[in-house]
Design a protein that fits this description.
The chain is of the alpha/beta class and about 350 residues long. About 40% of the residues lie in helices and about 30% in strands.
Length: about 350
Amino acid sequence: MAAQHGIRWGFVGTGAIADNMATVVGMAPSATLAAVASRTMASGSDFARRHGIGLVFDDWAELVACDAVDAVYVATPTSAREAICIGAANHGRHVLAEKPLASLASLRRIIAACRGNRVAFMDATHFVHHPRTADIKASMATRVGWPWSIDSAFQFYLADRNNIRFDPELEPLGAIGDAGWYNMRAAVEYLAPDIELRDVNAYLRRDEVSGAVIGGSGILTFDDGATSTWNCGFDSGAVISDLRISGERGSIGVSDFLGQDPDGSATYTWQHRGRDPGDAVESVRIASSLPGAARMFEDFARLVLDPALREPGMRATERTQALLDAAWDSALRNERAAG
């Protein structure tokens, strides 16, 4: 099975994200693409032809029941993910799910199914798998101290209203779920571990035609006094994915916290008070032979082989979704209050 063949992946979904991840699988030594399921045999067959996949299904239930598949990557609209993830787990398939999930309650049902069937679960957040993230976390105490503030932005321009992101039935959380997930995950990764949310205040922007949420911003306040300010949107005039972590010893800045350079490396800056007047700024470069997305598949393979490694990632997913739900609920309350 998995140990003999590597992880044999079945993809559910053939959209742009799945297309990109199918290419990434070719970079991951532990991963092979075995099967794909799409809503139509035509789209599934085209995807399979382009990525060298042998098995094609027009029903996800057939894919998750297929013994040629060890793990399932669920790259469907948010509204469909819970049923597919639970169906995969119930057939003994490990689960890698795109994000966000529909809600914290939905996520917990998925995780319960994975735990009950003794299979791995992971959300498909790439940046956490690049070694830059581990380096920042390991150096936090020295370079930042207590991280009392994190500011993040993930914004880009999306004009195509035919994109599923503009369909509130398929993507009910809109930009706050799609892009804001990364803001929330940055807070989970870089603020003090296990702190609790004390207060949240968030706002949203809607597309005038579709009614979809195309932007959001807000502030999260935690019980240790730390705060996280965030902005996300599909309506930005520039692509922005900035991150800044501040503390009493210094500040870490990342100009593209979701990506890396073409050679796989990624950088960040450490700004701190030097001996001479003014701040000293040091640039830190972290090498990597693989991009974060490919490392995600490699890290997933370790979860498959060692169940003891699974819980921390699932807790991180739960904490991220909990922050997202809280921000979403606050944004809706403020929208209703504004009339």
